[in-house]
Amino acid sequence: MIEQQITDTPRPPTRWARRSGPAVRPVRRTLRQRLAAPGVAGWAVRAPLPVALVLWLVALRGARLDRMGTLGLLQALPLPYWLGLVVITVGFAAALRDPRLPQRWPAAYVLGLITMVHATPSVLYPTLRYAWAWKHIAIVDAVMRHNGTVPNAHELDIYNRWPGFFDLNVLFLRATGLHSALGYASWYPLLANILLIGPLLLIYRSLTKDRRLIWGGVWLYFATSWVGQDYFAPQAFAYFLFLIVIGLVLRQLAARRAAASAPGAPSPAPSAAPSAAPPVAPSAVPGVPGARALSLFTDAPARGGWRLAPFGLLLVLTGAIVTSHPLTPMMLISFLLLLSLPRANRAVVLPVLAAAAGLTLLWDATVARPYLASNISALVGALSSPDRNAVSGFAGLAAAAPAQVMASWVDRGLTATVLLLALAAACRRRWRRTPLPLLLLAPFPLLLANPYGGEMIFRAYLFALPAAAFLIATLIARTPRHPRTGTVVRSVVLLALLAGTLCGYYSKEAINYFTPQEVAAGQYLAQNAPPGSQIVVLTADLPGFELRYEQRVRTVLAQQTVADRRALLADPASTLESTMSDPAVVGPSFLVLTRAQAAECELTGVFPTDTLGKVRLAASGMPTLRPVFANHDAVIYRHVTPVVGTGLFAAHPR
């Protein structure tokens, strides 16, 4: 038999046969076959990423910040930037076609997208972006100077009640020898988004093993996260910890379910009431080969519970959330409460829910009690007005810029589209029996409980986004009959979602960006306004406005009553005089007017567009106001007190 096998084995032709045998013409492949070859296909997936990054670097050199108008950074970025986003999106869509592609490539594409979106302002702007980030820099500085609780904080006392984020930054500054968080705060959005990849992978890998679904969900999260809560702030820190907690809970649920369904697992104990439905084993997702929807909603017995080390980690993370931000613990409780509804989940979820609720109640009853007690009437009023909470917002005295109205509709359209697509995916049979529907709906009960300054709808969207992104990925990552057509359709959908996100994320940069001249005005105040001073601004969009806030009085004309704002528009000089000559102020009063404040009036409609010009004209004609600082983008006036009966001014003006 062995001899027969050797005899039957085909042998390569001899040299004589190759010379004398019939000529064999090589088979010519079509263009489609050539493009489908493994080597060419690999380059088609790998080449777009470096090309997109090169286009991005070229765009950074050609960006013109002086072109920012009512659409912000969208008007300042040149064509190569937008071409780079198209290239990287198409490349990622092509990468989703190949389930065997190494994970480092979709990971590199996601990192490339995060870099192109969130590093762009950090690279282009010479100063820290966003007024709230400057406020948090001032709070870190105050906590460091006072070694803890800041006295005389007034309306900023809320940060004394949830100081975890600021205490952690003070600890980092002292450990590194840095004097301020200003040096790394500019890069915080980039760092915060990169760090979010970890908990997102933890969540998604507890739901499926399919790489296309996992990385498709991660990409969609960053391609639809337009809310902009990634700046240097407690909520970005608490949100990162929140996702880790949810990921650990889902991972434990998946592990218990896998242990219960493993061969040799003990049979479920008989119960008094028969189960309405038999346990459902993990099943493949239709249209996505290899995907597994890990069902966590069965009554199958589960082995083991929380071990001491993982549960201790959960306690530490939950404690950091509770001490850092007032809203995120409530979101965590809402998520855990809904996850505990299925009976099979309770052994895992209820201990974590009890810990989160107990720590939150303990903190609110002790450290946060002064703030909650002083605002109890507003909190109760919000609970009794759920309809107003969902649609609350700031009412200005003028119409917002038309471009901003359009951008606002794009934001809302993108939000509705993402949620509707996610709901459509959640209704599919394979995903109804997973935690995804509960994770999608969990943030919205809080939408009816409190307006959160008119931002609750956007915060609810942000907390629902991890589940929504994964659900949309289950629609996009499906293998169609014609793969190339599917890649085109997938690219168009991803580009449309990304365009909406950039519209929301970049359109207000005329307000968020501060020129070096505006920062110089804030530094002048920090160095020359003595304790007891009053700082008067048209809007709070000023870098350094809160520096040494425990020593100064801050008056924002845009935050006064409607009657006071109308009085300012009718007679700016009289309103300025009455405000800056307040006898309750023991120090001098300063009026600060900047370019960003004018942009905020134009974009938001809090005041008519020409209000800052009218206020500056009135201030320049008032004998009690003297300019003490001026440059191209800012001017500062100091109030002086006339000596009665002399026509002169006091030697030591206040």
Q: Main traits of this protein?
A:
654 residues; mainly alpha; 5-stranded mixed beta sheet; two-stranded antiparallel ribbon; 7 strands; globular; disordered N terminus
Strand and helix layout:
Elements: H1 2-8, H2 15-20, H3 31-35, H4 38-46, H5 48-62, H6 79-95, H7 104-124, H8 131-146, H9 158-161, H10 164-176, H11 182-185, H12 188-205, H13 211-224, H14 234-261, E1 283-284, E2 292-293, H15 308-322, H16 327-339, H17 346-365, H18 369-374, H19 376-383, H20 386-391, H21 402-426, H22 429-432, H23 436-441, H24 456-476, H25 483-506, H26 509-512, H27 516-528, E3 534-537, E4 553-556, H28 562-570, H29 572-580, E5 589-594, H30 595-604, H31 611-620, E6 625-630, E7 634-639
Parallel strand pairs: 3-4, 3-5
Antiparallel strand pairs: 1-2, 5-7, 6-7
Helix pairs in contact: 5-6, 5-7, 6-7, 6-25, 7-12, 7-13, 8-10, 12-13, 12-14, 13-24, 14-15, 14-16, 15-17, 16-17, 21-24, 21-25, 28-29
Could you give a short description of this structure?
By secondary structure, the protein is mainly alpha-helical. It contains 31 helices and seven strands. Strands 4-3-5-7-6 form a five-stranded mixed β-sheet, with helices on both faces. Strands 1-2 form a two-stranded antiparallel sheet.
